[in-house]
Amino acid sequence: MVKKIKIKDQHAQKMMATIASSLNADWAEDNREFSINLPEEIGHGYIKAYDFDHGITVYEFDCTLSKVLHLVLEEATVQPLLILFNREDEVNFEGSESGSKTIKHLESVISSEGLKGTQTLTLNNQDSTCFFLILLNRKDFEAKIDDFLEDMKPPLSDIFRDVNGINPFYHQGYFSLDIAQFMEEFTTTSLTGFMRYVFLEGKVFEILTHFLKQYVDDSRDPNGRKIPRINTVEKIEEASNIIKEEMAQLGSILSLAKRVGLNQNTLQEGFKQLYNKSVNQFIQEVRMDKAKDLIESTEDNITEITYKIGINSRSYFSKLFKERFGISPKDYVTKHRSSEGDKSA
């Protein structure tokens, strides 16, 4: 089943009211922050929206839907600048000028489709949909940057002097780890009231500033780019594969970082952003999962398993295994292999 929602007014309150009405869902408002908690028949998760000064509106989607959802941003008097950061499964984008695009995990998009243009986001059912969306009204934003427009250079001047959004353009690429960190801070803050609003607005400007720096960086020759993005992500993923494939003889974190061409701090920060854990935590989890698999699929004893996963101390292995699974490896061996024996008897 497919649901299409046409959105004419892209300010937070009006857009959230439109979405809630179309989904037969309730929505709430608290200090210029709007939220929808999805009912079970639609899926689970939430949609949030925030109105800030100078024409900035932010939308935060973190949900899994039971039906495909098309969000159609229809033509407006002032065509907003759309900036999207995709944090999870693929999101499909279609612009009346730029055509159909697939926005992958960790990719960002900046788009404007011209005065008569429309922009459609397709949220696929059963996918983990998690993205951060900024809609920027350049006419309202002009008041904030007016003193700087005269000295602004391409490609930023091409964007911000076009205050009505007349000229269509589209750019897609991977966003930086800094932006990922700012979004995490935005979505997880426990602040309330006035301090929350000020904090969130500050984070939006941090995200916007770093994204514009990245956009300028992208306009350079690939060999001249200074902000690490996709190649860093690829190297972090390479490091994770090395850990999984070579856990029995894995060296230090420093040697792992050198092997994939990163410094140790970048590797650590990358693991926190991509996997929400440190390199050591990732290694321990991979080793414990492998140990559990070996217990279940082989007749190896605990000492043999300990060495196969790259741990030299049986007592340390037992400690880590119990922390991960709530049971000692010895008891897990007894429990699993005795149950397997009962089945075959």
From TrEMBL:
PANTHER family: REGULATORY PROTEIN PCHR. It comes from the Bacteria. InterPro entries: Homeodomain-like_sf, HTH_AraC, HTH_AraC-typ_CS, PchR_regulatory_protein, Tscrpt_reg_AraC-type_HTH. This is Regulatory protein PchR. One of its GO terms (molecular function) is sequence-specific DNA binding. Residues 237-335 form the HTH araC/xylS-type domain. Keywords: DNA-binding, Transcription, Transcription regulation. Transmembrane segments: none annotated. It holds the Pfam family HTH_18. The keyword Transcription applies. The keyword Cytoplasm does not apply.
